[in-house]
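Dissemination and training. As part of the outreach component of the grant, students in the summer workshop were shown how a complex can be specified as a set of sequence lines and then modelled as a single object. The example used during the hands-on session is reproduced here so that future cohorts can follow it. Participants entered these lines:
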Amino acid sequence: MEPRLLLRLLPLVLVLPYAFGDSAPAISTSAEYNTECKTCPHSLCPNTLYYSTSELLNLTCWTHGTRIISTTLWLRSTSSCYLTEYDLADTTTDYTSTLPYCGPDSEDEALTLEAATLRYKTECRICPGITCDTLAYLKEDTEVELTCWTPDGQVIIDDPYWMKTTNNCYVAQKNLYDKPDITYLDPCGPIPFLEIEKHFNENGTSEVDKRSPVRPAYLINVTVGEEYALCHSCPEEKCEVERRYVFNQEVWLQCLVDSNGTWWSETTDFCYVRNADFWQSPEGDYYRNPLCEYFEEPGSGDEDGDD
Ligand SMILES: *[C@@H]1O[C@H](CO)[C@@H](O)[C@H](O)[C@H]1NC(C)=O
Ligand SMILES: *[C@@H]1O[C@H](CO)[C@@H](O)[C@H](O)[C@H]1NC(C)=O
Ligand SMILES: *[C@@H]1O[C@H](CO)[C@@H](O)[C@H](O)[C@H]1NC(C)=O
Ligand SMILES: *[C@@H]1O[C@H](CO)[C@@H](O)[C@H](O)[C@H]1NC(C)=O
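and obtained this result:
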């Protein structure tokens, strides 16, 4: 359940607890959930570190940032990063009267941004691994705006880099047309395992990109187990043959189609092969590949809101 990305990275903590004018006494508390502690009090800001469920921490001042469910209050910890009041175990304390205000500068949101386009159908996830909840199913050629990158995501084919979008979810670099120039983007910092039910944000995922959350999935690679495998323009034998893959050729798959009881897969060449033509069974639980229909027009599915 807990993939390698959960390995707690050494926090990028500057061990200078009193270097930021935190002269007032700190309040000791703990995290109710895994929670990100950010460079600024907004969901899209990069992480300085994260606190795990029940981890103890000390708070030094309060500020305002992204609304999380019911509160716009964020607190600065002695590690000089900001976490939402919502993720604190103790939500009865009135932090605005027991702690000083962090000052107007603390409310600024500094983000790096870079445009990118998805090459394939892509799941945009709450954290960079396939056990993380999917926030959006994005079609090929969707334009996204990237805010930060992580080298510690789950390896997709051969690439562990994932990028966070301004939709507040992560896409695998492998799914982009081009590798972004990360010299212009912030690193996202250490990312904990997050779950949709515990982590919302005001402007999370746009309605347009939302679909009902289903099983996790990703680009997978399989190999042809027949002498050749025909790739058709649509998932039926009678559809035009666009490509021919040969025995043992590695093929990348995007998603699944149940065509009248027979499983087919859409490849990264945007044509369809019968799953029976591969050594592997892409429709099986092992791969957890999504159905292609999840990426179709919005409005399908029984999405509940993010209220
Ligand atoms: C919080 O502050 C108390 C009192 O100064 C200290 O003993 C404790 O180690 C601090 N905890 C953390 C997690 O920094
Ligand atoms: C959320 O979106 C609204 C409308 O686009 C915008 O006015 C508001 O500033 C956003 N809030 C945050 C916290 O980003
Ligand atoms: C998928 O790709 C990886 C990395 O290129 C490779 O090690 C692996 O053998 C491939 N799997 C299949 C089934 O081709
Ligand atoms: C689906 O299967 C049924 C029964 O085998 C058949 O009558 C029908 O023509 C098939 N439809 C397609 C689109 O292949």
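Confidence is low (pLDDT under 50) at residues 1-22, 202-217, 299-307. Students were then asked to discuss how this feature might be tested experimentally.
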